[in-house]
Amino acid sequence: MVLCLKLLFGPTAAIFLSAVVILSCFTNVPYLQLSYTDDVDDLAGRRSSYLAAPPPPPKCDIFRGEWVPDPDAPQYTNETCAFIQEHQNCMFYGRPDLDFLKWRWKPHGCDLPRFDPYRFLAAVGNKTIAFVGDSLARNHMQSLLCLLSKVASPKDVSVTDKADPNKILHYEGYNFTIYLFWSPFLVRSEEVGGDRPGVFRLFLDEPDERWLSASPHFDVVLLSGANWFTRESYFYERGELVGGMYVALNFTSTLTNHYSHRMAFRTALRALAASRFRGKVILRTLSPMSHFEGGAYDAGGDCRRTRPFWANKTAPMGGVELEFYTSQLEEFREAAEARGIDVALMDATAAMLMRPDGHPSRYGHWPDEKRTLYNDCIHWCLPGPIDAWNDMLLHMLSDSS
Prior knowledge:
Blueprint (H helix, E strand, L loop, with lengths): L1 H8 L3 H12 L15 H12 L13 E5 L33 E5 L9 H8 L3 E6 L1 H14 L6 E2 L10 E5 L4 E7 L4 E7 L2 E12 L1 H4 L7 E4 L9 E5 L2 E6 L11 H18 L5 E5 L34 H20 L3 E5 L2 H5 L33 H14 L1
Parallel strand pairs: 3-6, 3-9, 8-10, 9-12, 12-13
Antiparallel strand pairs: 1-2, 4-5, 5-6, 7-8, 10-11
Helix pairs in contact: 7-8
């Protein structure tokens, strides 16, 4: 008591009162304003909020960035990998410039590690991955086979003949299996045939059972598709003709290939959810269709560039490309929000828009071949920019694990 009176009225009073004033200045600082009337639990919660470590930084967006020089690329060549299809074998067919190989994808603010075959095989041991889509799904798979070829080669255990586009490849030492399903529309389709080759009937509400029936065997299924939806097609729903694209109809329809593309992805994703698929679904967004310059693919168009675009110099998407891309994003979001399946987005479109230099162009065939050939500005040279898809794939599988 005597001590308290001395503090209040003695020589130290001024010092004491000054300290009180200084402390009062902090009463509006977040987390330091504590009321003695707060209950114990609330007080403990407030204390932990400012004593705890800061929240972790947001995850890196591996899909936004630039292509940067990489003197160590490529990781393989056409001489070290036997899985390159002839139409993407740009080195074999004499492409003279090879600088297009010397780039790697670098996300903004972080790094995407180079594909490591040992890490990949460790991540997928005792698992199965299915690539479902068109020839770009095959292009993607062949890139993966080449990147893994430094470590191991698969055994072809396909149950069909060698001409069948569907494949099953097994890595015995790792019990890892790759399925490839040719399903360019993802849904059931049939060619009209007869005198109308290349015209299709698309049953937009019926998934392609060839791959869906095998889905219980998959741990990861990678869905993709775009280019084939620009072909002449009739649209069917509930068994009835409801529209078409580039074909004559005896009724009025406003449905376009934007609609057929959207419905195909919706049907595929909902079918996996309805079948209670318990693996991971990866939706890969479209690969550019707009790298032709000087004309369309059948009118002399070509892709002769020898280096990437910078992000701020890349022309934005438009037209059918933008419509397809938008529908993929929207159907992905719907599937993710429905929570019926574990679905992830491989949003590779922005990165690939910057690589008009990475296509085979004329270097997927010999110039004197006696057949109708177009410059290929759709598929990707192997090795080439498409190898970044497997950098992304490894990152996504490692992150999820």
